[in-house]
Amino acid sequence: MSEPQPLEPTPAPSYVSGGTADLVPADAEILQTGPRPGGRGPSGPDPSAVPEERARSLWSDAWHDLRRNPVFLVSGFVILFLVAIALWPAAITSGNPLDCDLARAQQGSRPGHPFGFNGQGCDVYTRTVYGARTSVTVGVCATLGVAVLGSVLGGLAGYFGGVGDSVLSRITDVFFAIPVVLGGLVLLSVVTSSTVWPVIGFMVLLGWPQISRIARGSVITARQNDYVQAARALGASHTRVLLRHITPNAIAPVIVVATIALGTYIALEATLSYLGVGLKPPSVSWGIDISAASPYIRNAPHALLWPSGALAVTVLAFIMLGDAVRDALDPKLR
Amino acid sequence: MGRYVARRLLQMAPVFVGATLLIFLMVNVMGDPVAGLCGERRCDPATAARLKQEFGLDQPVWRQYLTYMANVFTGDFGTAFNGQAVTELMATSFPVTFRLTIVAILFEIAVGVTLGVVTGLRRGRPVDTGALLVTLVVISVPTFVTGLLLQLLLGVEWGWIKPSVSPEAGFGELLVPGLVLASVSLAYVTRLTRTSIAENARADYVRTAVAKGLPRHRVIVRHLLRNSLIPVVTFIGADVGFLMGGAIVTERIFNIHGVGYQLYQGILRQSTQTVVGFVTVLVLVFLVANLLVDLLYAVLDPRIRYV
Amino acid sequence: MRGATHARPVRPVVCAMALALAATACGGGGSDGGGDTGAVLSSSWGDPPNPLEPANTNEVQGGKVLSMIFRGLKQYDPKTGEAEDMLAEKIETTDSTTYTITVEDGWTFSNGEKVTARSFVDAWNYGASLKNNQRNAYFFEYIDGYDKTHPADGGKQTADTLSGLRVTGDRTFTVKLKQKFSSFPDTLGYNAYAPLPRAFFDDHDAWLKKPVGNGPYRVESYTKGSQLSLRTWGAYPGEDKARNGGVDLKVYTDSNTAYTDLMAGNLDLVDDVPAAQLKNVRSDLGDRYINAPAGIIQTLAFPYYDQSWGKTGMEKVRQGLSRAINRVQITRTIFQNTRTPAVDWTSPVLGEEGGYRAGPCGDACVYDAAAAKKLIKEGGGLPGGQVKITYNADTGSHREWVDAVCNSINNALDDDNACVGNPIGTFADYRNRITDRKMTGPFRAGWQMDYPLIQNFLQPLYYTDASSNDGKWSSPEFDKLVDQANAENDAARAVEKFRQAEEVLRDQMAAIPLWYQNGSAGYSPRLSNVALNPFSVPVYDQIKVG
């Protein structure tokens, strides 16, 4: 195991059997807080003692770290590239994604068509490039929506506990119970818009409980760290404690789940389209192409390989980015 | 603790009512299911009216719901359109799916957590990178393809397994489907564990434990892992419901007549009785799983207490 | 006549022998049904969506079972599709309205009960009675008294039995129709007309759990949702005795899994080879693959209630669309020749004598981009500049061919947006939109024949207000010719009239014919003598095992 090398005072041991602080996470009031002398926020000395101009140091420190992190630079570059082709697909392909001719169905690569053709005889390269717009938009927007909504609600519930937590937890229970297929058929079948926004809205609506659960769980853990207790005891406001102490300590699982979920949202878009309630034809997206090519994996694997590859690279970039951001936010790693 | 559990159990009542009402309304919004029963030919209006009456679809929605709930409390979940009692469908499909879910969860715990610990302790090393790549493949290749490939390779080419699962669906037959079902969740569990472990590996109590001269595996399991499991447990708890109700693709590929399949059929045929019945049971599973997760928090982190 | 993906005619089942009571009622037939004539084969099956009653089963999976456990008055020849007497000794008429039917002696249900005239009359009365909710009730609508047993919308049922049916002897009964219908006897091979034993009425629930009929197989056990085991009925009195020991029908939720099981040697027969595997089928199965014509046609129907499609002059646009579809390429590439480009509105399985001809559609069904453009322009262009082909996404993988059809139209018209697919999530929703007349453009229509008659391909689909005339197309000329054909006593002259009616369809391009669907099946090396009948159902009783 790697040796911990903290550069600055670290929080008191957070594993002490017997309970230094008795918390009631779920429904939950704090019964008894045990402020510990010497408790420290992750960003440095006890917050109430910190001069105001250092208040943003956590985030600026993180940015400072990130700029020198090769993982961040590489993933950031890939993401910028994806955004660029999503905005200007014509820059790297002259083809038309809707130009399909059955006479070329399932043919392999040839000059001018490096990725070959899919089952409908459309150029796989062109469709993969054009698919980036839809897929990246769906993936990023749905993930952002889910992450923000889920972590805010879950975080608040976990932090404050009490009735609000109970109500929210039960609401997530109800949402968990809605089968995606049913939700999609009901909510999306009435939509006539051919944009991606209804699909994204649907994913946020059904996806936030998952992140909310995770965020709540990790906020409950973070809340009883001694430095948090100390900050509260010293009169720091809830907002301050949440933003400066809880968030950096609780955000890691949210980032992990959200970055992986990005890939699954892109795939979910395909499922919805397959059910006839996702993007309306003739939309072009990786998900649609992956689900169309999947049954033909024995005959035309290339039609599956390229859009899947593009999806994998995208997910990789976001997972790496998430890792880098998380590391940068973790003061113990500095 | 006892009071806490009792309170949580009481809270299940409103969730139960809320979820069933919501699902009931959703299936209702989908429209008139009778048109789908007559094939490509239009149902003649007289028969359609009779069928509606038989299924109670001619009543206002609120009355349908009340009738339904009243029946549910007497153990009558209604009948599916093929004349089979919904309870009968449940009795055949839930045990199968339950076994499948257990297999999948065991995979998640055994493989996911182990991989997570190993990669978390060896961040940036080849084993970590390797696991990341495998994770990526799993995420970007749809379950559909993973399942089909495994089925084709193990079932046809090498003949290790039967490509389809028999109606009895014993644990042995469910190993491969369970792995396929668990695959995407495996990726989550691995990465969650890895991150948690990496974060906590630098904590003081770990250093203390190491300094005390505790054996390495004891430090990892008793101190490090135990403290790192909360996000993982949360995820797995939420995953139980997804695995039980959302195994549509896996169940199709391996011909498992489980909950995912019945639910999917019910939804496509717009059978309120089937869908609400199955979802009702799933909601109960969710509620119990969540309660267990919350209780586990206290086991994993003794500072967390319930009153 | 349900759509290819959904349904197919079925045939009724009869004596249920399940419970003690029923067993007594049915007599001593229980013990003689040994499966000792050979080995048992396994075959893929889908769970029937409706209860397994003869007049209630309107799709192919339930129909498959009914055709194994029942025999009706007529039986369609598995090769030619011709209706031949089975239980009927003779069916006589002088005026094409009143028929006297004599049941052959010696037939029994597998529980020992004799098949009599009453077995038929009771079954038909049951099927026609509104209170029994039988989905195939309309098959009895030509019989006198149907409006009393099955009143149209809102009416009260005033009779339990059809006044047109009369038992005149132990083995004879008469049927009085409300109008002339010369090919009525040939429709009697359909499942809905099967005889039913008393056990069906005496203990209905028990019968449903274990149906009893008079066919070459009897039901040994039935586990809903997973398996139906049929065994050869040793004492079967008919000539088409099963040549194997029985059939285990195993429920598969995905035809691809069944195919994989076939390759792995866990299944003997798959009668629905998934589209994605068609390309590999020769290398996987060699000559153990059948691709045989079936009485199924796929068309694009139009909403004639919609102003933009209903107005005169639009037939040019429809013809133009038809000429913009490259049927040859689509059937070859997407369907791997398991579909045949359509050249009329019926099916080749009817044969020349039955009314099929190669070519009534003529040039209008042949791809020609230039002609397509010209016709559409002459017709005033596509309404709104775009056609949306509506289909349901949940069954039958329609997406692929709809996309291919649209690409073909777009290429022919040099316009990326001339045609798009418009998927609907569920079949029920799709049917509701059709019933509620909410279609705004062409939509997919599939027709599987109930019985191999040209009448069955034309009248239910295009006659004014007919039960499956989903587009509400109406032509007095067409209706008149169909009426004349039905009144014709001579079969050949009737067919000629139907052909003339078909020409009206062509002139108006009432629906665009796409292709005829074949049945496809693959089987294991254990089996031989496997064939598909014109309904694309395997001829189980002829299969030899080992």
From TrEMBL, chain A:
Organism whose genome encodes this protein: Streptomyces spongiae
A GO cellular component annotation in the UniProt record: plasma membrane
A Pfam family this chain is assigned to: OppC_N
Biased amino acid composition, Pro residues: 1-12
Keywords: Cell membrane, Membrane, Transmembrane, Transmembrane helix, Transport
Name assigned to this protein: ABC transporter permease
Protein's GO biological process: transmembrane transport
Transmembrane segments: 70-88, 136-160, 180-206, 250-268, 304-325
Claim: Transmembrane helix is one of the keywords in the record: yes
Compartment(s): Cell membrane
Keyword presence, Transmembrane helix: yes
Membrane topology: Multi-pass membrane protein
Family to which the UniProt record says this protein belongs: Belongs to the binding-protein-dependent transport system permease family.
Primary residence: membrane
Stretches for region Disordered: 1-20, 26-53
Highest taxon in the source lineage: Bacteria
Positions of the ABC transmembrane type-1 domain: 132-322
TrEMBL record, chain B:
Sequence intervals crossing the membrane: 12-31, 96-118, 130-154, 174-192, 228-254, 274-300
Membrane topology: Multi-pass membrane protein
Full protein name: ABC transporter permease
Entry keywords, A to Z: Cell membrane, Membrane, Transmembrane, Transmembrane helix, Transport
InterPro entries found in the cross-reference section: BPD_transp_1_N, MetI-like, MetI-like_sf
Main location (coarse class): membrane
Keyword RNA-binding on entry: no
Highest taxon of source: Bacteria
GO biological process, one term: transmembrane transport
Automatic annotation (TrEMBL), chain C:
Disordered: annotated segments: 37-56
InterPro entries hit by this protein: Peptide/Ni-bd, SBP_5, SBP_5_dom
Highest taxon of the lineage: Bacteria
GO biological process per UniProt: peptide transport
Domain Solute-binding protein family: 86-468
Any one of the GO CC terms: ATP-binding cassette (ABC) transporter complex
UniProt-recorded Gene Ontology molecular function terms: peptide transmembrane transporter activity
Keywords recorded for this protein, A-Z: Signal
Cleaved signal peptide residues: 1-25
Pfam families documented for this protein: SBP_bac_5 (PF00496)
Protein known as: ABC transporter substrate-binding protein
Native source species: Streptomyces spongiae
